Amino acid sequence: MKKLILALCVITAACSVPKPVISNPYEKEWFPGDTVVAANICKSEEVILKVVLADTKSEQATLNKISELSAIEDCLNILPPLPFYVHSIVVDYKDFKDRPSVVFALRLVGDEDKNIIGYAIGAGRAGSF
To answer: Where are the domains of the chain?
Structure first.
């Protein structure tokens, strides 16, 4: 009997598919203080807006622009990606597939002074209060 119960538990666990908290990342609403994991951050609003312009054209244009800006140290590629807090949402925009996207101003986790340390793009939109 114990083996039957164990077998049923194993089958049930194997058949269960974990459901992500947010099934569509483009539906996420972002607020200051939220945690975001970023693999690429840029040093200024001016620089990240160049990435945004590329993101409105194509995925390849975006990757090329990030590589170009990383080569001249205007952006930093972080592997593995690290968590940051959202300081503020700089701008909402639509990417090349007309999906909602945002530009985050980032701050370090644990920074009590809440200094902006960089900027990143992400899926979703600014939350409304």
So the answer is: 23-126
Residues 121 and 104: beta-carbon distance below 8 Å: yes
Q: Are strands 75-94 and 100-107 parallel, antiparallel or unpaired?
A: antiparallel
Per-residue pLDDT reduced to its tens digit, 90-127: 999 999 999 999 999 999 988 888 899 999 999 999 98
Q: Please report, for the chain, how many H helices and E strands are present, in that order.
A: 3, 6
Segment 33-58, tens digit of pLDDT: 999 999 999 999 999 999 999 999 99
How many other β-carbons are positioned within 10 Å of the β-carbon of residue 66? 21
Q: Taking a C-beta distance cutoff of 8 angstroms, is the pair 87, 5 a contact?
A: no
Q: How many CB atoms lie within 10 A of CB 119?
A: 25
